[in-house]
Amino acid sequence: MTDENHSPLDSIWESEDPIFANKELLDIEHIPNEDRIIGREDEISSLANSIHPAIRGGKPRNTLIYGKTGTGKSLVAKHVTQSAEEFARDRDTKLDRAYIDCTQATTETQVVITLARSFNQPETTDITVPLSGLSTNAYYDRLWNILDSLHDVVIIILDEVDKLQGNNVLMQLSRAGEAGKLETCKVGILAISNKISFKDSLDERVLSSLQEREFIFPPYDANQLREIMRHREDAFREGVLSDDVIPLAAAFAAQEHGDARKALDILRNAGELAKEDDSDAVREDHVRNARQKADIDRFSKLLQDQPTQSKAAVYALSLLADASDEEEFPTRRIYEQYERITDSLDIDSLSQRRMVDRLNELAFLDILGVTDRVGRGRGKGITNLYYLLEDPTVVQTAIESDPRFSPAN
Ligand SMILES: Nc1ncnc2c1ncn2[C@@H]1O[C@H](COP(=O)(O)OP(=O)(O)OP(=O)(O)O)[C@@H](O)[C@H]1O
Fold first, then answer.
1. Residues near ligand 1 (Cβ within 6 A)
2. Does the keyword GTP-binding apply (predicted)?
3. Is 186 marked as binding a ligand?
4. pLDDT tens digits, one per residue of 369-388
5. pTM of the prediction?
């Protein structure tokens, strides 16, 4: 072979990743197999018992699952339903399942379309489900027809169910059998939420149909977080993880509230930082920097679709939090700071009322926190107090990545 056959890129193509051997094991979407799921034996068997009748075509019990972020709710729900589907297949039960992320499909129609398309096999049913153009009722009719013609039983996972607009879709799905919409197919719902207060927003009839079983997933402790990470250690090349990396990442994630997603994010980011440094090992300082990077990434993602006005309101709150020992601030003080920001950015200011609407939307999306309304002295009416859920530096770095807010402006 002559030199002409060599490209300068060859050395890049030939090189191997010095840090990761199987990086996908640390991807958030990755569903680990059973031996990598740690500390959720009780939750797995409780949920399995709850949907057990489905294996023989009976109606699974509708189940509500609560717990803070990263406590394995989605993972356990996906794992148990996948296992049920496989077991049922061997017993000739036509069991199918669908997973809906209610932050993506928030309206009743979007949910029904997604379900109908997910359960349909158009070549068998001859039913089409267009992405738009039909009334919500027409979509429901197609969904019921699809279910009765193809499946004995279906399990629907509604993740982040508190983000759904209105109760109607929950009502329809949880009572489809009783209401005579379905002739043969049985439907079970697994509704997942981070908010226990979600129940307060439900119509009593919907709540009683949905809540046939209810589980709360507790946070992980540092030992469990360590084990979860140890069971993904093979994401890295042998010997590149220094001994203190996993314990430190576990300690950071345990400080939050025992969030496994946070732990795995920190571990993945620490590996990426080590790679960027051309380091041959992942060390403690990579973990420390990764922690902040993971917080900023998460927060930037939450903010990415927010309008500038809403970002200005969060920014105002972060400047207040940075400059004082207090944590919670009334709307009046946030508004004063907000006006200073909109002035300096040369953008229109919303009225205080409209800004408060934005703050409340942000609180609903868990971008910031709001305390219950409190009386502020006699005759002063009541006001909300808002607080950050993240460190002010994290909030500011995330917002300043939007060029409009960068300090140079
Ligand atoms: N017990 C566990 N064993 C192994 N990995 C876990 C465990 N619990 C969670 N994880 C991992 O942590 C990440 C977050 O888990 P999951 O999405 O199930 O959390 P969640 O409780 O549904 O959080 P959210 O409410 O934010 O959706 C996933 O990558 C998952 O694989």
1. 28, 32, 36-40, 67, 69-75, 194, 228, 260-261, 264
2. no
3. no
4. 998 665 555 555 567 899 99
5. 0.82
